[in-house]
Structures are given as C-alpha cells and as structure tokens.
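[scheduler] slot 2 assigned
[scheduler] job type: sequence-to-structure, two independent chains
[scheduler] chain ordering preserved from manifest
[runner] begin chain α
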Amino acid sequence: MNERDRLLAHMEDLADRAAKTGWSASRFLTPSEAQSVTEFFRRRRDVALTFDGGFNDAERTRAIFVNPAWGESVRTELIAALKITYRPQDMLTHRDILGALMALGIERDTVGDILTGEGGAFLSCLPELSRYIVENLTKAGRAGVTINEIGLDELPAKQEELTVKTDTVASLRLDAVLCAAFGLSRTKAAEIIASGRVGLDHQECLQPAKELREGSLLSVRGLGRAKLLEVGGTSKKGRIFVQIGVLS
C-alpha cells in the first residue's frame, strides 16, 4: 500500500466514524493531500466533508467529516490559535519557528500554517497541543519568545505579495510556463519536472507537456510558487502573451 492509499484508508475510517458518532477530523493535511481526499470523497453522501486550517485561505487544513443529521462541528474544538511575540530586530522566519516546534518533539501534521512578521508570528495547531506549546516553547533560533493562545478570529489575513511577470510562451505546456516563471532553460525545466519537484494544482506532475490554464498553480521545491494569472492573445510570431504571479 502506497502513501496515498494509506492516507485515503485512514480518511475512510474517519468518515465511517463520523457517520456513526457525528463528526471526526484528521490532522493537518498538505494541499496535495487535501486535494486527494476531496476527489476520493466527492460521491459520498452520508457525511459532509469540509476543510479548516484556522487562517482564511490556509494551506494546511484539517479534513472534517460531519454526519448531516448530527449538526455542525465546533471550530474551537478542532483548531487552536497561538500568537508568538519576539523583538522586532530578531526577524524570525517560518523555518525558525517550525524548527523550534520540531525540537519539542511536535510532529509536523499537528501544526497548521505558520505566519511570521516583524515582532510576531501566528500559528494554528491541534487544541490538545496548545498548552504544551505555550508552556515549553521559549526560544526560536537564538531569540527568546513568549506565546499566548488567542481566538481564531484574531488570526490575521494571510497576505502574499506576488511579483507579476508579463512574458510570451510558445505554448501553455507546463515546461514552457515554468521557464517563463522562474527564468529556466527548457532543459533545466525538464530536469526539475522529471525529479518530481513540481506540483500542479497541489498534485505532483511529471508531464512536461501538460497543458495549463488560467488560474493554474505551480509549486517547485527549492524555487517557490507561481500562478498563471492571465492568458492573452498571440504575437506576430505566434507566441502567447501571459501574466504570471511569482512568490519565491
């Protein structure tokens, strides 16, 4: 049984439990895992499936199964929100916070998104871990930190600044758009795709000839993310005008 099959088998168990007891929830899933779960449960009608990660537009979310006859789940029973405070000059990164959590023995799928900024950071986690983190996380990187639990409605909106690039591509193939987004040669793009580092709409894609459309989301391990924002007309040489938003 591969990793995806194990994931879906576990989700099936959670769905069955929800049908009998009212509701159940997974740990935090990656976008790719959430997409697989969505597709797998598309036709099931005895339980409703939703996703929640605490933040609006959260990347990492919990799959929540609810028996419609039972009612609704309670968000505060599913997700806790924490605010981490530190000196502005310390400028902690996502990696600093995540590394400090892992050093406490906390598993990655028990924590959702981590949003860092000047002088503070926010994260979501399983409610049963909240007190442990508050009491034990006193340092991240070389900086001292203080932590408080906050309401879910106090989590800030996630704001991502995209660098918008206007370019032309020979086609809307994955490799062509990848080259335009990250300034790669066609050969390098092919190598990265073949290595399994490229995700298309949260799913690994190994097909360089895969056609993209407006709204397609690319993620490349080690390079960042890009979104095909707009597909325009064609140039006199038959190339396609595109706008691509890049978040590195």
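[runner] end chain α
[runner] begin chain β
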Amino acid sequence: MKPNSLKIVLVMMALVAITLSQLDIAAAASAEQIDRDAKKALETLYAKSPSAKTMGEKAIAVLVFPGIVKGGFIVGGQYGEGALIRNGKTVGFYNTIAASYGLQAGLQKFGYALFFMTEDALKWIDKSDGWEIGVGPSIVVIDAGAAASMSSTTLQSDIYAFFFDQKGLMGGLGLQGTKITKLDKALPSD
C-alpha cells in the first residue's frame, strides 16, 4: 500500500472510531442530563438570539437537541438526544439520527432547536412512529440574518429550526433526511 493511501485509511479509521465513541456517549445520557443540557442550551440560544427568544414565547413547544455529533468520511452519520419543552417543563425525550453520503469528511458537534408553532405540528412527532423531517409539517431553517427580520406577524410556518454551537471541521448543516423518534425515558419530577 502506498504511504498516502495508508494515511488516508488511518485517518478514516480514526474518524470512525471517534464518531462511534461519541455516539455511545450521547446514547448513554440519562434523562436528567438531557433535561439539564437542553434547558441550558435553550437559555443560551435565547441570550444570543432575541428572535429565538421571541419565537420561543410564541411557540407551543420547543424540541431541543443540545449536543449532536456528526462525522464521517464519504459515508457519514449524526446522532443526538434532546428534550421537548412545553411551558418550561420537559414533557418528552427524543433522538435525532441521520445518515448521509457524498463528498464529506470530518467531525462536528452542534445543536438545534425546533420551535413548534401549532398543535397539529406538535402532534405529528408522536403520531408518526419516528418522524422523518421533510415529511409532514413545514419547517423553515432560520439563520442569523433571517432571524433579525422576523416578527410575530411573519411567523407563518408550522416549525422553525435554529442551529447553534457549531464546533468542528465538517461542512454543511441541514435537516433533510433526519429522523426524530420518541425515547422511552422517565420524565424528571419537577
């Protein structure tokens, strides 16, 4: 094997190993840890984005995934666990998982929050046995520029998504092909 080919194989193996170890850590999170991390991430998002805070005040509920790990080389995957927060209380736990292929390489950690603006949109995540984003209620991904011009009169979609805390070296964030499934974890006693 050529030296350059060997280096590429070693880098690929390292990325896969790191990704798998991060997925195990994320999968092992307790309900209390997910609840705490999701609420902290939402508070931080609100502090950094007044538009997100305004949207949170109008939303029926917010599903927060505070620590999603994404990694891969040609074939990639991502996984994270989050909490559905309604009226300041966690009412359920969910995971988000996605697979992708194509020109990609790297490892990244990020979070996202889905702001459910209607009861029908919120009901969709439980009545579909695992919700694949792109099927069902309409979702609008908000970036920092668009968030600045939003107001309560421009909020017309079922769900809005905010990405936050992006760290690492892997290009591209998106929700297409992502599946969200309810987890069987006990709710925290408040």
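[runner] end chain β
[qc] chain β: Strands lie at 61-86, 89-116, 131-132, 139-142, 159-168, 179-182.
[scheduler] slot 2 released
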